[in-house]
Design a protein that fits this description.
The protein is an alpha+beta fold. The chain has helices at residues 33-40, 43-47, 52-60, 72-76, 80-94, and strands at 6-16, 22-29, 61-64, 99-104, 111-116.
Length: 124
């Protein structure tokens, strides 16, 4: 029996580096308690709590395209839609609870809630 701790992802838009190369494929690992503790104590987070996802994601993203490292500066340079996508993945991978999303039917415009099972909790 093994626990999956790394998850591949594909960004909706992609991070554009200084050379204009778009990086979309990546890999994210499960967070540890130390990741969250050290992120909360990071001086940038102490100065501005909104910086917490930037620090956390830079700690748990193992790879993004051909980048040598995924630093907070890389996360800061992402499009908002990609940041939101990664924040959602982080919560789904690291949460024991199911996620409930508000959704709208594209055909009838009816509103409903969609229950999404957390990822990475399957034991093989």
């Amino acid at each position: 029996m093994t626990l999956q701790t790394e998850f591949d992802f594909y960004l909706p838009k992609g991070y554009i580096d200084s050379s204009g190369v778009v990086h979309r494929a990546g890999c994210l690992r499960l967070a540890t308690a130390l990741d969250e503790i050290e992120a909360v104590h990071d001086p940038r987070v102490q100065a501005n709590e909104a910086f917490l996802p930037v620090v956390l994601l830079s700690r748990v993203i193992l790879r993004l395209g051909d980048l040598e490292a995924v630093t907070p500066a890389v996360i800061e340079g992402m499009f908002v839609s990609d940041l939101a996508y990664l924040e959602d993945l982080y919560m789904r991978f690291n949460s024991q609870e199911e996620v409930v999303l508000n959704a709208v039917c594209p055909h009838c415009a009816g509103h409903f809630q969609l229950q999404v099972a957390p990822l990475g909790n399957d034991v093989e």
